[in-house]
Amino acid sequence: MISRSQFIRTQSLLMPAAKFAAKIQKRSLSSSVPKRRSWTRTTTRVLALVTAGGITYRMATDEGSRRSAEFWSTAFPIYVHYRWVEWWTKNEKPEVSDAEFERLHDKYAPVAEALTLKMKGFYLKNAQTVSTMDDFLPVQYMSWCKKMQDEVPTTLAWEEVKAMVEKSTGKKLEDTFSEFDQEPCGCASIGQVHRAKLKSNGQEVAVKVQAPGIEQKFRADIKTIKDFVALAMPQHVTPMNEIEKQFVTEFDYIGEAKNLEEIYNNIMPVYGDRVALPKPIMPLCSKTVLVMEYIHGKRFIDGVKDHFKKYAKAQGKSYEELEKEEIEKMKRPDFKFKDLGKEKEKIQRYQRILDYKTNTSNLLKKCYNYTFGIFTQPYEYTEREVILNLGSIIETLAEVHGYEIMVNGAFNGDPHPGNILMMPDGRLGLIDYGQVKHLSMDTRLKYASLIVALAKDDVDETWEVLQDLGVKSRYNKKDIQFLLVKFWNDNNSKEVTGGRNLQQFIDWIESQDPAENVPEDLVMPGRVSFLLRAIGNAFGIDLHMAKLWEPMAMKVLAENGVLQ
């Protein structure tokens, strides 16, 4: 239904077009041009104006169309300018090309930031996702993408939240919950999360509420992005189709609750000592409201920041100074990523030394306190300090997600840092299972075979598995397709990319051997691998996912009779 204000605004938009059409018709009737030609011209012009009016009307009444128009009017000229500079500088010296692109980055990064903040929704979610991939975008874009981690994609007034929860449960809020925080404790991509307590048993829960109308907005945004990708980066159309398919499942909280329950039952018996997943309260879940166990903890990024702030203070520096030093260090040509295993062992060794010092100190204090301390002031005991072991954390994340993919065939396709919590008991909280992908046993076995081939750096074996999976390329260049599949599923070091950034690498692959068919089942496992590696890379840790997943892959293959 169109509101009165929208109707009046539409009339005002169409009125100039109608007047102009009438003016054309009047001129054509008095013209000396033959009537048939005049009639044809008039009809063509009127049809063009009516079409333009229809588009204007649609934009005035449909939010998706307005958002699409705003995106294209901003993004398309930027894209054209970048492509033109790319064409113009293709034969110039690298320093000339780099300087021109730096000017473009300086000019358009603020424009893209303003558009993202204005549009929010799917655009903001994407900015938050890429903000964890430090080499994904130029620094001008990455700097504001990182700021987006604290932005809220959607906001709901308390009255809306209360009304939606009551509609979902069919009861007054106070009849279901003894406590319900009005301020959200977290933000989801399509809604927000509130802490509450069940009236029935006092259990602390998280209540995830979907924003009204957000599904239509996100669907329109995804379609717009897909259209842009088809124009600007056609090689990414297949991944975008799969991401769209997975993302639209986020709008059904009943489906998310079932997926969460499935993965909870798969993971907690095996990894419950290292991770925790929230168990859904199924009777209280609906399409737009999801009630689940509340997991206490800091966001992964916040926990890491707190650790490095302490480290910076001990060094006599601010956190910002330390962060800048680390970023500059990683930019140097001679920079080498830390080995995951060695980094994990180093921190474990430091932790043992620190524990020994603390325990020795506390033992001496205890001896004093129970002797001389009885008559004097006793010493306070030193609390155990836990060193943040990023290597161990990343290894756990890799192992759990590898288990989900290859053993269970049901996994979270969106394990970015915002979906990871650092719990007080030392475990990792894994939340937000809106994008769960399921793989058949046949696909799991083929993917496990791919991981084994990549771990061995065997080009021929990798090519055979890719053929079995249905991958096709124009020229069937094994070495090129090996680099591409290694990039998405194993490692994105300079040895793989040749020092190119993401877009340059993909463009180069397309120029050498364009992909003609990429099975959609390969997209989400590759996305998981890429996101997990981005977490490691952000802290200078190099990850070879195929090496990490190889033992599990071989076990899966052996248990199913593929390996003897």
What is the topological layout?
Layout: H1 4-30, H2 35-61, H3 63-88, H4 94-119, H5 121-130, H6 139-147, H7 158-169, H8 173-176, E1 177-180, E2 186-188, E3 191-198, E4 204-210, H9 214-232, H10 237-247, H11 253-271, E5 275-276, E6 289-293, E7 298-299, H12 300-314, H13 319-331, E8 338-339, H14 340-369, H15 390-408, E9 410-412, E10 420-422, E11 428-430, E12 436-438, H16 441-455, H17 459-469, E13 472-473, H18 478-489, H19 494-497, H20 502-512, E14 515-517, H21 523-538, E15 541-542, H22 545-559
Parallel strand pairs: 5-11, 8-15
Antiparallel strand pairs: 1-3, 2-3, 3-4, 4-6, 7-10, 9-12, 10-11, 13-14
Helix pairs in contact: 1-2, 2-3, 3-4, 3-9, 4-6, 9-10, 11-15, 14-15, 15-21, 15-22, 16-17, 16-22, 17-18, 18-21
Q: How would you describe this structure to a colleague?
A:
The strands form five sheets. Strands 1, 2, 3, 4 and 6 form a five-stranded antiparallel β-sheet that branches. The termini are far apart. The N terminus is likely disordered. The protein has 22 helices and 15 strands. With 564 residues, it is an alpha+beta fold. It is 62% helix and 9% strand. The chain is globular, with a radius of gyration of 29 Å. The longest helix has 30 residues.
What is the mean pLDDT?
Answer: 83
Q: What is the rounded Rg?
A: 29 Å
Task: Tally the beta strands.
Answer: 15
Question: How many helix segments?
Answer: 22
Helix coverage percent: 55-70%
The fraction of residues in strands falls at 5-15%
User: What coarse outline follows from CA principal-axis ratios?
Assistant: globular
**Cα-to-Cα separation, first versus last residue:** 66 Å
Q: In this structure, how is the largest beta sheet organized?
A: 5 strands, antiparallel
**Low-confidence runs:** 1-37, 43-61
Structural class: alpha+beta
